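dude i think i finally got it to work??
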Amino acid sequence: MKGNQRSPMFILFLVVFIDMIGFTIVIPFLTYFVQDLATSEGIIDTGKRDLWVGIIISVYSFAQFIFTPILGSLSDRLGRRPILLFGLFMNTIFFTVFGLSGSLMMALVARFLAGAGNGNIAVARAYIGDISSPDMVASRMGAIGAAFGLGFMIGPFIGGLLSNPASGIGGPFDTTFWKQYPYLLPCLLSSVLSLLSLFLAFIKLPESLEIKSKTKEEDIFIGLYDTLKNITKIIRLPIISTLVFTNFLFIMGFSMIHGIFILFTAMNIEDGGLGFDAMENGWVFAYIGLLGVIVQGGLIGKLTKIFDLSKLMIFGTVICGIGIASIPYVPGHISWLIFISSTFIAIGNGLFSPTQSSLLTFESSKRGYELGMVMGAQEGYGALARIFGPLLAAYLWSLTVEGSGFWTYHTSFRVAGIIFIIALILQLKLLNNLKISINLPKEG
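look at this
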């Protein structure tokens, strides 16, 4: 199947696109949903209620951390196709289950199982490696990256647009059922899209892997074992460990806004927030996603031909940190200023991610390290950052949201800013130790 197989790429693009929609579609309304569930269970303390927001966000990433390497190992043993179908089936079921959740525990389990199914993104990448000749891999991986960006842009928009349809859309949705389940409609749409992908994959996606021999049953856990081993091994590698830890800090600081951004924007204006509803939050996250697609999909290639990779990485860290730390200072009466903070966040992330990955690739190759091991460790640390970031943010928020003086709802955003400062210091120290040429070859 190498080189000539074109049709699977559309299905693979769809798989990743749907997975990202499932991850991001909840962003605009998850805070409101969890707060409603907590209140219905008698949790009236604001801090305890909002802590649940971080927990339910983090459990999705925790499931991905556990199941991504397991599903990868299973795909080596059983083939890529059944694992990809399994992930789409999980998404089809548990998107809807989440929308129907009547308790915090039900919502927690639904998001965990959806995250477990979403571990098939790594299998989609492996499928591309199976069917692609070396000269096609980069462009096809770029298509998967575009699916990430589009999913991140469209998911929050859909989530905000379709939330609370009884009042937002009206007409046939102005019923008791949709008032009882105000966040079901976007989840239901995700399930329908996932079901469509499942159907197309079932009839059109061939197996890409020739299974030569069956692996022992217990070997399905070897991927998880390798991930944990690489996480500890990478610490002993000079330069590489600093680059990976820098990425860990950046992702941790960036993912903190998933837990607290809407906690802030949903606050009443008189309490210091912006008074946003789910739809308004959806527009903000869609804007961030759109800018991310523009930067990573078009501008980054041109910028790397003009500026050093390390300088772009540092600049990305600085402006993303400023954007996140500035969020709670946006005044409610001129709430459109949130788009300035969002611009900094989107451009900063769009500059940091590809340049850091490129530097890590160059340095690993020069020093003769196994690139698979290095990238696997980076993915492992990134997953941990996406677990700890929202949890830390929500915990700090729960402690300070009703505080006064220095310890107020600003604290979580300030801590995120401090994390970016630490990442910046590491990058500045790293400049003196890098032994590679950090300029990409100029055209011509």
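The radius of gyration is 22 Å.
im so relieved honestly
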